[in-house]
Specification:
The complex is a heterodimer of chains A (299) and B (186). Chain A has 3 helices and 14 strands. Chain A is mainly beta. Chain A is elongated, with a radius of gyration of 28 Å. The chains are: A mainly beta (299), B alpha+beta (186).
């Protein structure tokens, strides 16, 4: 009995000792670490909800409104006569709303063709990191534009539907690193009415956009759409815009050069009549100001 | 037989003591305030999912906070905080690992409020600094409430403030800790 007790005591002593030693070595935080990494949504792939002209994979935070003022000046190759295009300007005013982390909608009006536009943007999947990470953001966009100019020929029977065009878009985008984000944007634009019989009602295009961050607050961006059909030689061209995003506190300034004059999907994809070849470019800027409509913090 | 009983009793005591040795929470509140008189709005955020573990026997206390878990009144401020100031993608966690210097003066089994002096290392934004602060430990119904307020000089942690907003963001953030710890049974 005595010997047995001694043995038990020894075992116990060893156990206690080792447990004590373990506790000292161990990080206290490790004790409550469940080893799980919660899924975190990857955000700030782009500084703004538009790369330059096209939608970006980024969404507005819920409860915020983005007031956007877009300016496109005239063609730079017009020389001093028009102060390199600065004498002329075309603009779009827009309001965009973040509804949820995956839902956003917006409206706008452009000088060009006095066109109204609106869209709904929804992301079934967003890029995330963690135990159930997803590599890309997939966003679906449906939009419409309404031309409000007087009808070209008031003598014939005109229908309201003739003013309307639609576009549908899928964004597949990935923030590759802190600095580099890329996205692919297959798009279809449908015109209810086209001016000429040889022009297709449905135009298919693929967008390719991206950004490279130069510093914490400055990024280089580009935005290109390749028209698969509907391009007529010498009449319309693929829109390419290159620019710089500058973030200054509450504003994001996007300064860029582009051959596109239009500022909604229908206009810049199917109606870009200038070309990079002849420096037939325009200087332009987008100004974005975010307003908080609903307090984000629940205190 | 008597000896075996003593042994069992001893063993029981030991495990019981160990069970109450440690306290923890995963829903602690840690907030910061970097508002100055020239700030156009309050610059503050709160993290309601902070982890804190306290070893009552040794006085060791540790905190861990996910930077992306800070909530703000304005979504844009949250974005700027994560993107431009603390760089949450690069440095996702802030930790504090320290010790209650006057731990022996705190009776964890008796309800009451005890002043605590804490010393340790705060690691944030890739920088680690030794800090020392006074706080309060309150024991109530077996729970431990930890509270403290201390300043953190942002330049100590290489958190840069652009020239443009230099007078609108405080150089020193006031950090407030408010955690209620439950006994850790493990």
């Amino acid at each position: 009995m005595k010997q047995q007790f001694k043995r038990v005591m020894t075992i116990l002593a060893v156990m206690v000792c080792s447990a004590g030693a373990k506790a000292q070595e161990k990080d206290l935080l490790d004790l409550v670490d469940d080893g799980k990494t919660p899924n975190t949504m990857v955000t700030n792939a782009f500084k703004s909800i538009r790369i330059i002209n096209g939608h970006s994979m980024e969404f507005l935070a819920p409860g915020t409104m983005d007031f956007r003022i877009l300016h496109r000046f005239g063609q730079m190759n017009q020389g001093t006569k028009n102060l390199f295009g600065l004498d002329q300007a075309s603009m779009r005013l827009g309001l965009d709303f973040g509804v949820t982390k995956k839902l956003q909608l917006g409206i706008g009006r452009s000088t060009f063709k006095k066109e109204l536009d609106g869209y709904i943007k929804y992301a079934p999947l967003r890029q995330s990191t963690g135990d159930h990470a997803f590599p890309v953001t997939i966003a679906l966009i449906g939009g419409a534009t309404i031309n409000t100019l007087p009808f070209a020929d008031p003598t014939r029977t005109n229908y309201f539907s003739s003013r309307v065009a639609y576009y549908v878009q899928t964004i597949i985008g990935r923030k590759l690193s802190d600095r580099i984000s890329l996205q692919l944007t297959p798009t279809m634009v449908h015109h209810n009415l086209v001016p000429l019989a040889n022009q297709p009602n449905d135009v298919y295009a693929v967008g390719f956009g991206g950004r490279i961050k130069a510093s914490q607050r400055v990024a280089f961006t580009w935005d290109y759409f390749y028209n698969i059909n509907g391009l007529e030689k010498g009449v319309n061209y693929n829109p390419l815009s290159v620019g710089v995003d500058i973030e200054t506190g509450g504003h994001v300034f996007q300064l860029h050069f582009s051959n596109a004059a239009g500022m909604n999907e229908r206009a810049f994809i199917t109606e870009t009549t200038n070309t990079w070849e002849k420096v037939d470019l325009r200087f332009g800027f987008n100004l974005s100001r975010i307003f908080q409509l609903k307090k984000a913090k629940s205190s | 037989m008597k000896q075996v009983l003593i042994l069992i009793a001893l063993f029981g005591c030991f495990t019981a003591a160990e069970a109450q040795n440690r306290f923890f929470t995963k829903t602690g509140k840690i907030s910061f305030d970097a508002t100055t008189s020239k700030s156009p709005e309050n610059i503050d955020g709160i993290n309601k999912n902070s982890t804190c573990v306290l070893d009552a026997q040794t006085g060791d206390i540790q905190f861990s906070v996910l930077m992306k878990g800070f909530e703000f009144d304005r979504a844009l401020m949250m974005e700027h905080f994560n993107e431009n100031y603390v760089e949450s993608d690069k440095f996702p966690k802030t930790t504090f690992k320290g010790n209650i210097v006057n731990n022996s003066a705190i009776n964890y089994t008796k309800d009451g409020s005890y002043p605590a002096k804490v010393k340790g290392k705060l690691s944030m934004h890739g920088e680690t600094k030794e800090i020392e602060t006074a706080g309060t430990i309150t024991i109530k119904n077996g729970k431990v409430m930890v509270s403290a307020t201390f300043p953190a000089l942002l330049s100590d942690y290489k958190v840069g403030i652009p020239q443009l907003v230099a007078d609108k963001v405080a150089k020193t953030a006031k950090i407030t800790v408010d955690c209620t710890l439950d006994p850790l049974t493990k």
